Automatic annotation (TrEMBL):
SUPFAM superfamilies: Cytidine deaminase-like. This is Cytidine and dCMP deaminase domain-containing protein 1. It catalyses: 2'-deoxycytidine + H2O + H(+) = 2'-deoxyuridine + NH4(+); cytidine + H2O + H(+) = uridine + NH4(+). Its EC number is 3.5.4.5. InterPro entries: APOBEC/CMP_deaminase_Zn-bd, CMP_dCMP_dom, Cytidine_deaminase-like, dCMP_deaminase-rel. It comes from Hippocampus comes (Tiger tail seahorse). Its cofactor is Zn(2+).
Length: 477
């Protein structure tokens, strides 16, 4: 398989080696995502960014069937853009509008091969690399309309394939597949941990484990069930090298594993019976809908699986937009890690169970929020709503940074809130003024006949501060 990027062994998605500190404490580390794994998963997930109007599955024959696309823009190994298709713009076009010529020398990771309309502009902007997930492309070859003969690729999709191939062969941008095998044991590790993480600590009592419905849904969306059809699509995209065994089976196996991991992370933040409620504080402007909040916190959960912390993975994403309305744009994202450029095991890895405080990690780890703000792609303008989604309650070290950066909303969990662990404390969050705080919690929903009203309460015994019932779900299934 074509490798999209070269990384060191630890970077390439292998489990980090077990290390033995001189104090002879063994640390057990789980596997982590490689950067390519993370970009694949983020791009697939972004494709499902909540839309006001769902994508139209019933286009008539002869009309282009454009599928939603997710896109991750990377510069110097840092994510500088997260994009998704909307009603007007394709994800590729949205990236052009936001980054313009700054896309030069960036790497773009698409959840589908982009259409010729997007591709010509992206190539023109001088990007260095374009990678895409090897499923059905943006101009769908799968759904050729309700009246089209089954299995036949539409003329539009064929024409688009010819044009994209022509653009590809004349382009200086390197165009390749977005797929890298996951580290050994990753699927099981995510399946086991997605519901046991700190973020969901108060919500883990119901149906733990991999959600098969979720796996089914994502498989339908991102995999091509029929082998012959998949081969045919790869051939149309001039990827005939991947149609030969054993490469074809490997490709399909690796795709399935990535989809399973995505399903497990998504299942870890249940859609039903839980949501974000606002802590007591004067409302400035509303936050985003529950669906968007859940989507963004799952982005943060994906980032958390790239942590360098031996014990607790934390992910953070900051999105901003005018009054929280319209298209949001990425400010920054990150996960907790040792300072950029440091070699693995150069710093202490121990937590507060290590008696010798010099051996503890706390003075060295850069927190997820700190990475998101340090490597932010733009400043926050004072008129906009800037929303931080973070999988762990922000600590006292981060609170002043969050406030000074201009964050207006925080979506998080209250696990560890008001606790002082010596090396790290979480005492300032509760008294943080001027920032809207939304805490994930269980919700009680009313019996089915109330569905039309469909309002939900935050459970007061879980968060005594709950003063407000968020009215965002349009109805529980
Ligand atoms: Zn397009
Ligand atoms: Zn912190």
């Amino acid at each position: 398989m074509e490798e999209s990027c070269r990384e060191s062994p630890a970077e390439s998605g292998q489990a980090l080696p077990l290390t033995r500190d001189s104090s002879s404490q063994t640390i057990s580390l789980g596997p982590r995502f490689s950067k390519i794994n993370l970009f694949s998963l983020l791009s697939l997930w972004l494709e499902l960014f909540p839309q006001e109007r769902p994508e139209d599955n019933n286009n008539p024959v002869g009309v282009n069937i454009i599928r939603s696309v997710g896109l991750v823009v990377v510069r110097e190994s840092k994510v500088v853009g997260l994009h998704y298709s909307g009603h007007e713009l394709h994800a590729g076009q949205a990236a052009i509008i936001q980054h313009a010529a700054r896309l030069a020398d960036c790497q773009l990771y698409f959840s589908r091969r982009p259409c010729a309309t997007c591709l010509k502009m992206i190539i023109n902007a001088g990007v260095s690399q374009i990678s895409f997930w090897p499923g059905d492309p943006e101009v769908s070859m799968l759904r050729s309309g309700p009246h089209a003969p089954a299995g036949q690729i539409s003329e539009e999709a064929t024409l688009d394939a010819v044009a994209t191939e022509k653009l590809k062969s004349n382009s200086r941008s390197h165009i390749c597949l977005l797929l890298q095998p996951l580290a050994t044991g990753m699927v099981q590790f995510v399946g086991e941990t997605s519901r046991e993480c700190d973020f969901m600590a108060t919500l883990t009592d119901d149906d733990p484990g991999l959600n098969t419905e979720e796996v089914f849904y994502f498989s339908k969306r991102f995999l091509i069930e029929d082998c012959h059809q998949h081969r045919e699509i790869l051939n149309q995209m001039h990827l005939e090298n991947f149609c030969v065994e054993p490469y074809f089976s490997n490709l399909r196996h690796n795709m399935r594993q990535v989809v399973k991991v995505l399903a497990a992370v998504v299942a870890g933040v249940p859609q039903q019976h839980c949501g974000f409620h606002r802590s007591a504080s004067p409302p400035h402007h509303e936050g985003v809908s529950q669906e968007v909040a859940r989507h963004c916190i799952i982005q943060a959960r994906l980032l958390a699986y790239r942590t360098e912390d031996p014990k607790v993975g934390v992910g953070a994403v900051v999105w901003a937009g005018l009054n929280g309305l319209g298209r949001l744009s990425l400010v920054g994202c990150g996960y907790n890690a040792y300072p950029a450029g440091s070699q693995y095991a150069e710093y202490p890895l121990m937590d507060d169970k290590q008696e010798d405080r010099k051996r503890r990690k706390y003075r060295y780890i850069i927190h997820a929020e700190q990475n998101a703000l340090t490597f932010r792609t733009r400043d926050i303008n004072p008129e906009e709503a800037a929303m931080l989604f973070v999988t762990k309650c922000p600590c006292d070290e981060c609170i002043p940074l969050i406030r000074s950066a201009g964050i207006t909303h925080i979506y998080t969990t209250d696990h560890d809130r008001d606790r002082n662990k010596g090396d790290i404390s979480y005492l300032r969050f509760s008294n943080l003024k001027g920032i809207q705080k939304f805490i994930v919690s269980k919700l009680i929903c009313f019996p089915p006949f109330f569905k039309k009203i469909s309002f939900v309460f935050a459970a007061p015994w879980i968060s005594p501060e709950a003063e407000y019932c968020h009215l965002a779900y349009s109805g529980f299934p």
